[in-house]
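Thread: sanity check for a docking pose with S-adenosylmethionine

Original post by kr_44:
Hi all, I'm comparing my docking run against an independent structure prediction. Below are the sequence and the ligand SMILES. Could someone generate the full complex and paste the structure tokens? I mainly care about where the ligand ends up relative to the chain.
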Amino acid sequence: MAEIPGWLTEGQARMLWDAVQRLPAGATVVEIGSHQGRSTIVLGHAARTVGATVVAIDAFVDGRLFGGASTRDLFEANIAAAGLEDVVELVVGYSTRLRPHWTRPFELLYVDGKHDYWTYVDDLRWSTHLPEGGEILVHDCFSSIGVTAGTLDKVLLGSRYRYLDRSRSLARFTVRRPDLTDRLRVAAQLPWFVGNVFLKVLLRLRLRTVAGWFGHHGPYDPF
Ligand SMILES: C[S@@+](CC[C@H](N)C(=O)[O-])C[C@H]1O[C@@H](n2cnc3c(N)ncnc32)[C@H](O)[C@@H]1O
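Reply from moderator J.T.:
Ran it for you. Here is the predicted complex with S-adenosylmethionine included:
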């Protein structure tokens, strides 16, 4: 994973790995947003150890950030180099277009696709295919404004998802009715979110040195 560009930290990779380790043999993981395969390779190697498989969904969106068709080539080369072609199945398309027609059940959902409120909330609806107690991992939670708004709406105020924990911006939810304590634990993440928005404003204003005073180093938004 370390050789593949992307936004997943080592601690977050560990969290993905551990989530797959809790799955039974024959299980399926669905990943929305694979990019060059940094997270897919972690999921894929973990899946192999338990006898699971990974469905990687990506539209390979054009543009400077995600790179379009050439990113697909890199993804396929990275999966092949990792020896994971028999574990990882690539499905090319927009998650929001695929979801209404999807019928295959799966046991773990990893959401790291488009980060606006509407797409993220739609991506959460893939969890209708999860069993009760199934886990959902969400990247850029409490760092992206769209993902955080969706989390406040559907997790803090909703009745279907329970917040478990997080590694920086990688949050873990389960499909279970939340109680008041679960909701309060979501609210307790908001100061961290406010700090991240503050850092993003500094980065947009090109004040990287000032962001460094607050412990944020490098050009990327906090993740
Ligand atoms: C943040 S990157 C994923 C990073 C990846 N998980 C990793 O660890 O490197 C987001 C990816 O989602 C894809 N994407 C954006 N919107 C999408 C959508 N609606 N459906 C499917 N993929 C989408 C982009 O093409 C991009 O590759």
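The radius of gyration is 17 Å. Hope that helps with the comparison, let us know if your pose agrees.
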